[in-house]
Amino acid sequence: MRYKKQNSPSGVTRQGTMLKVLVAAALVALVAADGIPDFVAPGNCARVANQENFDLRRYAGRWYQVKIIDIPYQPYTRCIHSNYDYSDSDHGFRVTTAGLTPNNEYRRLVGKIYPTNDFPKAHMLIDFPSAFAAPYEVIETDYDSYSCVYSCIDTDRYKSEFGFVFSRTPQNAGSAIDRCASVFRRNGVDFSSFNVVPHSSECVYRA
Known about the structure:
The chain is an alpha+beta fold. The protein is 18% helix and 36% strand. It is built from three helices and ten strands; from the N terminus they run H-E-H-E-E-E-E-E-E-E-E-H-E. The chain has helices at residues 12-32, 56-59, 174-186; strands spanning 40-42, 61-68, 78-87, 92-100, 106-115, 123-127, 134-141, 146-154, 158-167, 195-196. Mean pLDDT is 85; it is low at 1-22.
């Protein structure tokens, strides 16, 4: 199911269109290389629904990744958390994401996530300096406990597919996982490809 386009400030549409072109070009370059990366697979992205009447201000604040499709360019594997700082002037979020690497190093990345005129407000773009631009589609959220997010780009033959289960708390996130499992399956996304993000007493949450 798709929803009506939303309005956003002048310039965001042009930027969003340019990013989409760059995203497509990046994926084409990857599949044209001598070896196809592990995160590129045959097939097409699922046509997922987007959260209706998405409220950017209510979505702001801290979210914890509790189950995800592994992301090779994300340096951390444990204790992953993000702070979404909403800005009216930017009509989007300044996002700080942090966690622990496999070597137990604390790493932090800062970027932006924002909507464009091309899609509903819940279908945003990820703009981080360390990764190619990608969609950020909020399929469903209650703002207070869980958020089910899909991020996928494709060509005619290949896709690069990621998904996230976010929780407002790092522990006792079972209800968020159960809810998003149902949401992803209903939208045609294979939930068996998701892996748990460990959160333990050694985690430090400073994003």
